[in-house]
Amino acid sequence: MQRRDQLQRGRSRSTIFEQSCDRASGKRQCRTQRKKVNLLDHKRANHIGIALGQLKMDFVDLRKAIISLEDSKISLEQLICLKGVAPTPEEASLVKDFSGDRSKLDRPEAFIAELETIPRLQSRVDNWLFMRNFETKMQEISPQIDSLEKAFVQCTSSKKFQRILSVVLAVGNHLNGGTPNGRAYGFKLDILLKIADTKSSDNTSTLLHWIIDLLDQRFPETMTWWEDMSQVTPASSIASQTIREESGHIKMGLKKIADELENFANNSEEAAQSCNRAYVTRLNGFVDRARVRSESLQARVEGIFKKFKDIATKFGEDPEMYKWEEFFQVLINFNNNIEKCRADTEKKKTRRVEEESQVASSSPPPPSRGQV
What is the pTM of this model? Predict the structure, then answer.
């Protein structure tokens, strides 16, 4: 009740005539103009007015399109715009209770007057938009899940990566020999980055340089380990929260449609009304097919979260706090460090060869035979 009073006070002006002056002829002339009736508050009316400019549809045609749910009658962009200005029950009641001449209502109020008789308007628009967006959402999230599944398989099945981890563990145990840390059965993944910061006594190399030399000599095949991780970089840009939210939206959208159909099932008279027939038919035709695909998607989402939980636990991380974005980024940074170390080693080798060549060229030639 208080909200309605605020709406009426915001823009309601009882005067339907105003005076304006025309001084073009040098004489003050006045004329009366008819003024539209405003019921909504100014901000809401402006918002609807802007949306109506984007919709660019006759109100009667718009009502027919919403009743029939014909996709060809209203574009997805128009439907999104409509969702933002669909009248609330309070606004619909305010316009419905207007006892004056409806032809004098301003455009935002006339828009509401045309749509307020559509039953379940807001849920109808929401469900229609969900159905229109469903295929797009599925096509967006499915390849992301594919990428994550492949990345997790690569990380857990690469023998080259496993060999690198075992060598890092062995080196760590050797360096920490005689201490409790010298009998470790594993390590947290961030150790892979810390070994690049462990300098030699002369600060010319790091522990990672030494490990790479060891791997290159004893297990040269491990130097191509990153080729086994082709899906890690693409997967690193997929946020775990986004996957949760998008799959959750799909699940919730289908639940809303199922709830709507249950309401109609409990009220057969309402379902049989001409304004609801196309709506109920559309929902029934969509929900069974979409539910199967959604359930398959939810199972895959739960599968990748379980898989990563196992990976996080293996590396001593809290699976509730550690995200796969962090995991993948560690691997990417580790590979970057390896490439940097190998580049440093090659530069040192090149420089050493050049220095030896310079020394050889500057040395005096040996004396010829016969010279004293």
Answer: 0.78
